[in-house]
Every structure is written in structure tokens, then in C-alpha cells.
Amino acid sequence: MIHLTRADYRVMPWANGKGQTVEMLREDGPEGMRLRLSMAAVVEPGAFSIFPGIERVLTVIDGPGFDLHGDGLLLRCDPLLPVAFPGDVPIRAERVSAPSMDFNVMVARGLPAPQVQVLRQGKVAAPQGGRVCLLALDSGDLWISDAELRVPGLSIAVQLGF
Asked: Superkingdom, according to UniProt (predicted)?
């Protein structure tokens, strides 16, 4: 199991220069990005970056949320409700009434589809041959299968797999 904290994260500017992404975990393969966990603040309407061949799940972890509009796509991003969408569709944040912080899970198409669940408490069983990544919003104990880990808020515990 790997435990990552804020000291392990990388902060990168957006391509449009209007914000920053906190890259928490990234794994690349021969074809490019395989997995990425990140956070970003959405403070105004605007275009999201396009990630060809990537499946995304976005979860608002702080703030009121916003809408995502794209080619035939309208998604409401409410707090703590994961929203899945393809990374290669042009998409914009709209109805941004106040700043929101989002948590993104991005996985290369062809790998197991990303799944995000919000747990208030309890244990998580790691699937056989799979990978579990947990983001702790508050300090406390995380349980992955039979392993316990005490973590500070906004840290990640990763059970390796694939």
C-alpha cells in the first residue's frame, strides 16, 4: 500500500492559464497516461482540458458545484456525487455560482473503468487484481481490506493492482 500526502503532490498550471491542477498521483505507460488523480478549483465558467482516450469521473468535494456542458452532454456536478464523462469530448463548466473544488479520477480507455464512491465510514474491500485509491477528506482511519492507515485530510491511500 502507498500513502501519499500534500508533500507528494505536484501543482501545475492549466493550459488556458486560468487555474491550477494539483496532481496527486499519475501513472504513465508506453501509450501515455494510464491513471491520474487530481484536484482543481473551478472558480468561473470555462473550458475543461481535453484528454483523448481517457475516461473521467469528477466529484465536487467542496463548494456548491456547477454544470458541465458538452457536445450533447449536460451534467450537474453536485457536492459528493461522482459524475462520469469521456475525456475526449469538449466540455465547459457553466453555472459556477461560487468556487468549487473537484477531485478527478482519469483512467485510460481500455483499462477497467474508473468507479468513485463516497463513503462516510466503513471498510473497503480491494477487488481481486484491482486497484483501490482512497482520498481522505478529513483526518481519520482508512481501512483497505484488512490494513488500517491513519491519514491526515486530503491524503491518498493506494492499494496497487491492475
From this structure: Bacteria
